[in-house]
Amino acid sequence: MENFIKNYIQETSSALEHVDYESIAKAINIIQSVYERDGNIYIFGNGGSLALATHWVSDFNKTVFSHNLDKHTK
Fold first, then answer.
1. Which of 16, 39, 43, 69 is the most buried (most CB within 10 A)?
2. CA–CA distances in Å: residue 68 to residues 23, 43, 61, 73
3. What is the 3-state secondary structure of the chain?
4. Global pTM exceeds 0.70
5. What's CA 5's distance to the chain center, in Å?
6. What distance in Å separates the CA atoms of residue 5 and residue 19, rounded to the nearest whole number?
7. pLDDT, tens digit, for every residue of 15-73?
8. Which pLDDT belongs to residue 65?
């Protein structure tokens, strides 16, 4: 079990070293811009991807809109 945990942590650390932070920041800025002008963000999925899309929207609502109950996703 200790080897499994050690390998998992090493693989996760390695994956995080390759994250493109600039692209993530760009995506966040785009989403924020849409939010600020009361625009729409469409999230799609089919099958398992639908479950992930639904989960993303749920998490987005909980974190982004918890301070402003007048705004929400549709």
1. 43
2. 27, 21, 10, 12
3. CHHHHHHHHHHHHHHHHCCCHHHHHHHHHHHHHHHHCCCCCCCCCCCHHHHHHHHHHHHHHHHHCCCCCCCCCC
4. no
5. 25
6. 21
7. 999 999 999 999 999 999 998 898 998 999 998 899 999 999 999 888 877 766 566 55
8. 72
Rounded CA gap, 23 and 40, in Å?
20
Separation between Cα atoms, residue 39 and residue 49, nearest integer Å: 23
Tokens 């989403």 label which residue?
31
Encoded tokens for 71: 């705004």
In degrees, rounded to 5, the angle at the alpha carbon of residue 44 between the alpha carbons of residues 74 and 53 is: 80
Structure-token match 């809109």, residue found? 65
Find out whether 60 and 50 touch, Cβ atoms under 8 Å: no
